[in-house]
Design a protein that fits this description.
ATP-binding, 3-stranded antiparallel β-sheet, 416 residues, Rossmann fold, Arc Repressor Mutant, subunit A, 5-stranded parallel β-sheet, 16 helices, Cdc6_C, Helicase, Ruva Protein, domain 3, single chain, 3 domains, alpha/beta
């Protein structure tokens, strides 16, 4: 017998529990899908279409809904001879500027048409934009440009100004670019430049967190396909839904919890998945979610986290928000990145608090000092540094903070 064997006692087909699985129908998002359909209808009517922005936390169905709607739109548009429609999709996860997004779009368009990719360096931004307009012109018709996790570009929002105006400015002729922006950041639009806000003229669709009943509705058909009959105890799916609803309202989290519970049951040679397996899976995933939560922060979020890690390395925590902001600005300067307002930094800190990454203390020193907040990490410094080290842009800073922490620790030992 080998170490690895194919086992079938729990999973019948694990694909419905995979992150990449695309369901045949979208549950519990009827209102959002109707709004989405109205926003896309002008494409079928062959008339100008507004840009569309989707907002919501991770796991609330924005991306899967977009894939679902565009797939239907593509099939339905093929029924009309006078509609020339195509899509191009770019994930902006590691793209922190309009320049990088434009290059990614050019390369995606060229790859779809069998052309050669362009280098990520060596061009001026205007030249990259000109190449992008040439590729869009060659494609023609209505082109839906999906920019997933668009909030990563921060203040570098030229792409959101240039694309909607490309036709009126004469940069493209027989093409109508339509932007579909997907963002985890509800405040993303507030931080766009005034000229971009005026130009976008977008329709907004908000995707709120799911509640326990909605998550249960999403999980049940996947569970029916994923597991053999009789494997699931009746309380497993409701418990997975309840845990995820209490935490983030994320369908992705609920699905991963159910899959992890199944894997724990299978590794224990159990023919059934029980509530105990779900609770053990929840403990395991909570540890992983902290890392994932840090990894999914925007560049600005990472800069704020980096500033807090610096104070943590000196053991100068909890730290006041004004001091933390000063360090954050220095970090942005070192990264050659735009810094945001102190109020916006507090928004990022609030998000980190909800993710369980930091602890916030409210202080009140009376009339003299008034109320203010102090912050410190709620997770080991080493865990933060591991994530920053894995992010190329922050690698050097993470090494500096690590060195600072080591030196501070050594000097502390020498004093005692």
């Amino acid at each position: 017998m080998g170490m690895f064997q194919r086992e079938r006692q729990v999973f019948a087909n694990a694909e419905p529990l995979d992150d990449s699985y695309e369901p045949e129908d979208i549950r519990e998002r009827d209102k959002e899908l109707k709004k989405y359909q109205r926003a896309l209808q002008p494409i079928i009517d062959n008339r100008p279409t507004s840009n569309i922005f989707l907002y919501g936390k991770t796991g609330t169905g924005k991306t899967v809904a977009t894939k679902f709607m565009l797939s239907h739109l593509e099939n339905d548009a093929a029924e009309y001879d006078d509609i020339d429609f195509s899509t191009v999709w770019v994930r902006c996860e590691n793209l922190t500027s309009s320049y990088q997004v434009a290059i990614a779009l050019v390369n995606e368009l060229r790859e779809n048409q069998g052309g050669d990719r362009i280098s990520t360096t060596g061009y001026s931004q205007q030249r990259v934009f000109d190449i992008l307009y040439e590729e869009l012109n060659a494609l023609g018709g209505t082109v839906v440009i999906v920019l997933d996790e668009i909030d990563n570009i921060g203040h570098s929002d030229d792409i959101l100004y240039g694309l909607p105006r490309a036709r009126s400015n004469g940069y493209v002729d027989d093409v109508r670019p339509v932007i579909v922006g997907i963002s985890n950041d509800f405040q993303f639009r507030d931080n766009l430049s005034p000229k971009v806000k005026d130009t976008l003229a977008e329709k907004e669709i908000l995707f709120p967190p799911y509640d326990a009943n909605q998550l249960r509705s999403i999980l049940e058909p996947r569970a029916d396909k994923a597991f053999h009959d009789g494997v699931l105890n009746r309380d497993v799916v409701p418990l997975c839904a309840a845990f995820a609803a209490q935490d983030s309202g994320s369908a992705r989290q609920a699905i991963r919890l159910l899959r992890e519970a199944g894997e724990l049951a299978q590794s224990a040679d159990s023919n059934t998945i029980t509530e105990e397996h779900v609770r053990d899976a929840q403990d395991e995933l909570e540890k992983n979610q902290l890392y994932e939560g840090m990894q999914e922060l925007t560049t600005q979020g990472h800069a704020v986290l980096c500033a807090l890690a610096y104070y943590q390395s000196l053991n100068k925590v909890p730290v006041r928000s004004r001091d933390l902001y000063e360090q954050y600005v220095k970090i942005c300067d070192r990264l050659d990145a735009d810094s945001v307002s102190e109020r916006r930094v507090r928004d990022h800190l609030s998000d980190m608090n909800m993710l369980g990454l930091i602890t916030v203390y409210e202080q009140n020193e009376g009339l003299a000092a008034g109320r203010y907040h102090e912050y410190e990490l709620d997770i080991p410094l080493q865990a933060v540094l591991e994530v920053l080290l894995s992010t190329t842009r922050f690698e050097e800073l993470a090494n500096i903070i690590q060195s600072t922490a080591d030196n501070h620790h050594q000097s502390g030992i020498s004093r005692y």
